[in-house]
Design brief:
Mean pLDDT: 84
Largest sheet: 7 strands, mixed
Strand order of the largest sheet: 5-3-2-6-7-9-8
Low-confidence stretches: 1-31
Strand content: 15-25%
Number of strands: 9
Order of helices and strands: EHHHEHEEHEEHEHEE
Shape: elongated
Structural class: alpha/beta
Distance between the termini: 12 Å
């Protein structure tokens, strides 16, 4: 297995499956902008905020025009300003990330740092609509892929197994979606070559994040690899998000062989690649 920093690994890497699927040809990079649709993140929460802001602004405008007094105009204008101010942050973030963008730049450390040629079985935790499958796909050689997620739509509007399967297939992967809990994996012990968890752990409680990492260790083969991609949104306040995530990964029984961060505009992600202690 190769270290993402110095290329010194020799272990097998990838992720494994809870179901039997046939091998696929090497993943193909698609160039069309709208080949993919990954859904809208936090659509309900952001949509509610936008709706409330627009209602307040509309009531202000209508009230000012209806009563047509100086006081009504001032109050109405204030309501328009307040409603617009309240709705603006959610409106600006509604299509961030863009639902059609694979965002491969932030998955690049996992694509480069895992020896995908040695991967037979790849288990991706928290796959959602498949962005974490599509991101590394060009580097994946010939793997059985399992995409595990609750598929409940609470975080991503349009989150369902068929959407994940379709996006993965568009990227050249034959993925089997499995509905399940990352903290209680329905996967056999020692059945995986690689497990990835991208932008997942921060959405869980600390206890469930720790359980997820322990489960990842359980299902990995002795020479397997863990890949983690995370935000700065840790469970506890800290000035060192990478150190925080490193502590959780190490405590689960992994040796971190590569770590760092990638950044574009105002987005920053932290990555870690780990091997099993004594593997």
């Amino acid at each position: 297995m190769r270290n993402c920093d110095d290329g010194s690994h020799g272990n097998r890497v990838a992720a494994a499956t809870a179901a039997s699927v046939t091998h696929k040809p090497r993943a193909v990079t698609r160039l069309a902008v709208f080949d993919y649709y990954f859904g809208i993140y936090h659509a309900r929460r952001r949509g509610r905020r936008i709706a409330v802001g627009l209602v307040v602004a509309a009531l202000g405008a209508v009230g000012g025009a209806l009563f047509a007094t100086d006081t009504a105009y001032v109050v109405g204008l204030g309501a328009v300003v307040l409603g617009t101010w309240y709705a603006q942050p959610a409106a600006k973030r509604l299509l961030v990330p863009a639902p059609w963008s694979p965002q491969r730049w932030n998955y690049a450390p996992l694509a480069k740092g895992i020896d995908w040629e040695a991967v037979d079985d790849w288990l991706d935790l928290g796959s959602g609509t498949g962005r974490s499958l599509v991101g590394p796909a060009p580097a994946v050689d010939d793997a059985r892929v399992t995409a595990l997620d609750p598929f409940d739509g609470r975080v991503i509007a349009g989150n369902d197994p068929e959407r994940a399967r379709h996006n993965a297939a568009t990227a050249g992967l034959d993925a089997t979606p499995v509905r399940g809990d990352a903290a209680r994996l329905p996967v056999a012990t020692g059945s995986q070559d690689a497990v990835t968890a991208c932008r997942l752990l921060h959405d869980l409680s600390r206890g469930d994040a720790e359980a997820t990492l322990s489960e990842a260790r359980r299902v990995l083969r002795s020479d397997g690899t863990l890949g983690v991609l995370e935000l700065a949104a840790t469970h506890e306040e800290t000035d060192d998000p990478l150190g925080y995530w490193s502590e959780l990964v190490t405590a689960a029984g992994f040796t971190i062989v590569a770590s760092g961060s990638v950044e574009r505009r105002d987005e920053r992600y932290f990555y870690l690649i780990g091997e099993i202690h004594g593997g």
